[in-house]
Amino acid sequence: MDKQWDTLIRGALVFDGSGAPPVTEDLAIANGRVAARGPGLDPAQAREVHDADGLWLMPGLIDIHTHFDLEVELSPGLTEVVRHGTTTVVFGNCSLGTSFGSQRYGRDDPILDCFARVENIPKHVLRSCVDLMDWDNTGDYLKHLDGLNLGPNVAALIPHSMLRIEVMGTDAAISRDPTPEEMKQMETLLEDAMQQGYVGFSTDNIPFHYLANEPNTKAKIPSPYARHGEYRRLLDVVRKHDRVWQATPDALNRIATFKRFLYTSGRLFGKPLRTSALTAIDLVHQREVWKTFLGLARFLNSWLMKGKFHFQVLSAPFQLWCEGPVNPVFEEFATTRPLLECDLEDREGRRKILENPAYIAKFERDWSDKNIISTFQRNLNIMFVDSSPVPEWTGEQMAQIFDRIKRYHAGETSAARSPAEATACVAAADSLRSDAVFFLHLLREYDREIRFHFTVGNDRPEILEQLLFDKHTLPGFNDSGAHLINMAFFDGNLMTLKIAQPRGLARVAEAVKRLTSAPAAFFGLDTGTIEVGRQADITLVDPEALAAYDSDANRQKVYRDFLREEQIVNRSDGVVDGVYIAGVRVWNRDHFLPALGQQKLGRALRYAGRAE
Prior knowledge:
By secondary structure, the protein is of the alpha/beta class. It is built from 23 helices and 22 strands.
């Protein structure tokens, strides 16, 4: 007899994404859509039956802050998020993206120029992506995405830096205001994009996002150079279409940031502007600042301001991995910034800087200057070595290593535990006078061969949970697809579920909503639910495996062929039992299935305008 369903998933505990309590039921899929839900569905009606007893079933998860604009060109299956249960990603964040194509006009190469330092992606990776780009406008970009064998659904923002470059060119975009004609052209291009279905517009005001190509390595990417008048006119276009403004703040100029965030106000501007901002975080070096984020969000959304504002929250301790001098927080510390002006492969350029006596003296002064507030905390006690040419250092604090070297030079030669460590002690003889000079010695001696990490924030679980489940925040800021060797938060959505799990199923239901229907409604995405008739994007989670999952223990550095580079990734195998995109199973507990990346599954989403 004919089967009416392609797949039947039986006996799962179903979280529908609404925040309602879960129920045990079956779910049937036909022609890529949810065909039926309820208890006791007839297995004889399905070509394939999957027993999900003991599993959680939920809509496919959404990652609202990614930089997959480049990877989607090389590997459209986007495997590193799919394996963790994510089926929809938003890119074009932080004013950077590819919606205008390569933008290689004259000597300009803006995608390399903007992405290489801001997102810590090697230029050869960027170049391989840019070489594939055959579109030059926002409409054709969406058509291009339509033609890819997408794994997850993708939704694009219009990036402000690239919009400025498109109209003004790189040099003008970082050196002057737009002319009246250029301003009008930017508004027109943004208006066209909103009509084409882009879900929003991203800007950037982080004061440490620099260009990577000469002669502009001391200049920021274009978006921070825009004045309030430019912001106002462009955001009026976004507001008119009820789309999202993705914003990053200027942490050094809080008054200017506050004024910009007021753009969300429906009281001041007649209609609220949906605003998704970076980032509410519990910073290690500013312990009370997390309260300020929540207080600001409450004020902006109050009856007085009538805003539609949320902060994004990273669902994990914010750990950064550094390959010697290559790490993003060095941009924030003026004395280390010149090291990042060198190309990734330019070890000799960095060494020349690090050997300069004047540079060493300035670095030593700035290291101990308490008036310089930076995410780079200048503390050897919190820096842990992951790998180096000296095997004995693995897992140790830099402070422990420095102490042993000082003991060696004080005559305790047994402090060196191997010939390799003894050689390293001898080489460090001129670096004993201070922590700062010793740290520079490690960078100079080993460059990218010494790998270490430290924690920037979100290290207090009770504060992280408050941030994550506050009504004025949403899980986000995973930065998936960027910072290949510096960050790994692909499993951020799973970590939200893990944080919720000990509080009971009601909190898990709330977490599922915050990862599915809530961001879908905010961004206007046609996804995030498992209603009958909707595309069957579904994630199955094993709650026992989730409870036992240790993200830190399952983080690894792997070589990715399509990038021709190593990348830090997460491995949550077993936690996600299955992932379906458009009704096709693409992940099965610990391995991918052939359809992912080879078959068109996900969609290039346009704004759907669903009500919140």
